[in-house]
Amino acid sequence: MDIFASMRSFGHEQLLLSHDPSCGYYGIIAIHDTTLGPALGGTRFWQYKDTDEAVTDALRLARGMTYKAAVAGINLGGGKSVIIGDNRRVDREALFRVHGRFVETLNGRYITAEDIGTSPSDMEYIKLETDHVAGLLGLSGDPSPVTAYGVYVGMKAAAKACWGSDALEGRTVAVQGAGKVAYSLCRHLHAEGVRIVVTDIHSEKVKRVADEFGARAVAPEAIYDQPAEIYAPCALGATLNDETIPRLKAQIIAGAANNQLAEDRHGDQLEQRGILYAPDYVINGGGVINVYGELNRWPAERALKKAGEIFETLLRIFDIARAERIPTHRAADRLAEQRIAAVAGLDRMWTGGEGGRRQR
After folding, report:
1. Distances (CA, A) of 299 to 139, 146, 213
2. CATH code for position 316
């Protein structure tokens, strides 16, 4: 893998690879763009098959965070970090304190938070080494309920654009994944009278959703073949690819996973099939909104209300896509890039003070 070529193609500013043999720490921090503010992105703890896969994931996720923050209208850039290893290990303090020390070396250019394989308790260990961390116990904590709410209202926006009404009652939604975000999403769907089909590689999580929400459980590979009007990818990314897209029976794709498209061309394929795609980094923006709220000491209600704006943002993206005859993922990119370019182009203003600094 040519790392610099990958950074150039994605437009990244910085990539940090770190190692500490004392606890078996192998970590990667990717910073994509800091035009709008410091780079925010969670720490993912995952057993990647090799370093190239981990670097690629970090780069893609960091870029997604830039666009996610831009579309959400908050003043943050995009970053991401990954720790390579088994996220089921119980001896976590040293590992996450080391991670916190490497985050600290970036002097605030990067702020981390919770992601797949990590928890608010892990963030507390990071906090012992750096102040550049969010998602702490007693503050915003677990962002999954806000993320799930944003996905839920985004799904309703897609329904309105597709069927003329945002009502989901009586619809069937196939949910891939039964983790924290998916569980909270299913709670909203069940309350509205949605029929749920669910899968996950962890059978105990599937059983919980089935028991509490009357969901029908299927094998992981069978989820793509289900007769459902909405497919909600809420696990790992790249599940929309050459193999799965032809199998889908859904009219809408609206889920919480990051990097749902294996490649951009798969968004084009969805458009060609007449499937309405709610771009992932738009519909799952509730998590970054939740963290931004913590950094700015918002009350929980304000973060939830801000996540509710995902409904109108998606309707705007669907309108752009329809008017310009482009796929929805390209319309979302256009909206994000317009905001970044507008802020980057602002004239610097005299603010007085020491040294006569000019600031944006």
Report:
1. 9, 13, 29
2. 3.40.50.720
